[in-house]
């Protein structure tokens, strides 16, 4: 065999090895993403979105919430899963049978309100009447109050109910822009979050969105991990005075 043929064969073998290595790396990354989110190819996932603040139309959606849905839909599709969109007031089939991404706070998304009431008793939010400026997220004794022009907050949680097959991801910001920022953070930091939290169990953390007038939804920082407080005392019965959704809510 000539030197040229040997060199060509060696190059071909090296190319195949590199291609296979890259394929394995990509597959492993995708498997980590699928495991973290509970997404499995050929299945579907739910995207449940809040109504637009103060809109007369029950199907109106904030522009930033649409952006949040697009971020999540691209993620879902990249795992070979079909996203299915529901408005928060629509009847959603089952709970825990499909991966669910629930966008918006408890006053604009009744599905979020139910998740907080029954599965995250440590978390609440001041109503618009009580707290028109701050829209404070309350977690145990901690409070995260919006400061106009400076900072607003968003909560991200993974809820796994009993032996449910699939998790619920809650994306709950004080404004629609905070929802968008949180969704982008969840997608961008998925590898790091997978290493931190693994593929099983609940988690909950708070993000801060800073300088929205300058940076929009792009300047986001992790503020606090509140997992232990958020899921505290799950055995207690829900109170009749727990937060109910209100259609005229100005945040989320």
Description:
There is one protein chain. The chain is of the alpha/beta class and 252 residues long. It has one domain. It has helices spanning 3-37, 63-78, 110-119, 176-188, 190-197, 212-215, 227-230, and strands spanning 44-49, 82-87, 99-103, 123-125, 137-139, 142-144, 151-159, 168-173, 203-210, 220-225. Strands 2-1-3-8-7-9-10 form a seven-stranded mixed sheet, sandwiched between helices. The protein has a three-stranded antiparallel sheet with strand order 4-5-6, with no helix packed on it.
Summarize the structure.
The chain has 252 residues and is an alpha/beta fold. 36% of the residues lie in helices and 22% in strands.
Spatial extent as radius of gyration: 21 Å
- The proportion of strand residues reads 15-25%
> How many individual helices?
7
Order of secondary-structure elements:
HEHEEHEEEEEHHEHEH
What is the makeup of the main sheet? Answer: 7 strands, mixed
Mean pLDDT: 83
- Uncertain runs with pLDDT below 50, 5 residues or more? 235-252
Structural class, from secondary structure content? alpha/beta
Share of residues in helices = 25-40%
Largest sheet, order of strands side by side?
2-1-3-8-7-9-10
What is the overall shape? elongated
Number-wise, the strands total: 10
- Tally of separate domains: 1
Q: State the end-to-end CA separation.
A: 70 Å
């Amino acid at each position: 065999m000539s030197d040229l043929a040997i060199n060509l064969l060696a190059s071909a073998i090296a190319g195949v090895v590199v291609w296979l290595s890259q394929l394995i790396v990509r597959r492993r990354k995708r498997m980590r993403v699928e495991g973290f989110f509970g997404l499995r190819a050929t299945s579907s996932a739910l995207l449940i979105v809040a109504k637009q603040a103060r809109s007369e139309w029950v199907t109106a959606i904030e522009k930033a919430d649409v952006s949040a849905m697009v971020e999540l839909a691209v993620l879902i599709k990249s795992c070979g899963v079909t996203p299915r969109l529901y408005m928060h007031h629509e009847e959603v089939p089952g709970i825990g049978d499909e991966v669910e991404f629930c966008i918006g706070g408890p006053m604009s998304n009744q599905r979020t309100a139910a998740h907080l009431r029954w599965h995250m008793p440590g978390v609440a939010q001041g109503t618009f009447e009580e707290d028109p400026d701050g829209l404070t997220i309350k977690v145990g004794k901690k409070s995260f109050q919006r400061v106009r022009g400076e900072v607003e907050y968003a909560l991200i949680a993974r809820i796994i109910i009993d032996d449910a097959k699939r998790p619920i991801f809650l994306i709950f910001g004080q404004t629609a822009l905070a929802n968008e920022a949180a969704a982008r953070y969840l997608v961008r930091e998925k590898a790091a979050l997978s290493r931190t939290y693994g593929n099983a169990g609940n988690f909950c953390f708070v993000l801060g969105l800073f300088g929205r007038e300058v940076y929009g939804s792009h300047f986001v920082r992790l503020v606090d991990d509140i997992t232990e407080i958020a899921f505290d005392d799950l055995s207690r019965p829900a109170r009749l005075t727990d937060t109910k959704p209100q259609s005229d809510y100005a945040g989320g």
